[in-house]
Amino acid sequence: MSDARTEYYENSENIRPESMERITTKELADKFIDEQIEKLRAQIGDGKVLLALSGGVDSSVVAALLIKAVGKQLTCIHVNHGLMRKGESRMVIDVFEKQLGANLIYIDATDRFLDLLAGVSDPEQKRKIIGGEFIKVFDEEAAKIEGVGFLGQGTIYPDILESKDGIKAHHNVGGLPEEVKMELVEPLKLLFKDEVRVVGSALGLPDEMVNRQPFPGPGLGVRCTGAITRERLEALRESDAILREEFKNAGLDKKVWQYFTVVPDLKATGVKDGVRAFEWVCIIRAVNTKDAMSATIERIDWELLEKISYRITHEVPGITRCLYDVTTKPTATIEFE
Ligand code: XMP
Question: At residue 170, does pLDDT exceed 50?
């Protein structure tokens, strides 16, 4: 580990004191918010802050806190890499720009990402391209804003613990590389995920954002397995939207830890409107876990599963067949790549 990182983990400010009370109620969250607003104002003064706002729980809560603390001194950059779920970028714009009045720069970089990913089938190579390009796009936008001294980050306590133990390379603390010259602003770094959600609700963020299921940084890219094509990516996005809608209607969105569809580069024979259709296979996955290290499958109701399968095969162009993944982790990981 580099000196800068070792120093980071050994700094007492990055170690949660045993006496710190778990934030479980609105009252405790309000107290935390008030304290953080003071701290953020003291740290930032009249400086400018930048934040990469993905729309995930952590970056959203940091953004909402920073808006309260320093208002327009914050600029949020939302990079749409083209691998977002249906409606996700729209929600980020609606909540942060329209409702909270944030300075928000929205970059639709879909073509850049998909052009670079064309023909690339190795999962780790895909991750590298997506992560690397994300930093490039962000840096390009950041360079256009003068005098930025601070970088907001949605680091939470498990990120610190897991990076320290070397468990998750892709969730490294700091997210962005070490050369970043701006001072980090990490108001959630001692909180666990459940506490971040309580704080997010207290800040008035919509339930859908605060209780969002985990979504990997490379987005739909790791679910459109193999080399990504625009058509298959679109089929994936639509099938995922149907699954989410049906899970929400059945109340499963509050019960199941993570659920999504995968559209691999696999075709099977089918019949549509009486004609042979050789089209993609869509896989549905729904899992429960505490820590994502191991997972069990959701024993989904057959009738609901059939309904979802019917809708996906009838509403999504290019898909004729649905499968349900019944594999636990291990042996399967939660994602397919
Ligand atoms: P696996 O597939 O390893 O996933 O069982 C465990 C959890 O981590 C998420 N995941 C990722 N998150 N970048 C992320 O930010 C990634 O590259 C990545 N890969 C997997 C996955 O969605 C699950 O919640």
Answer: no
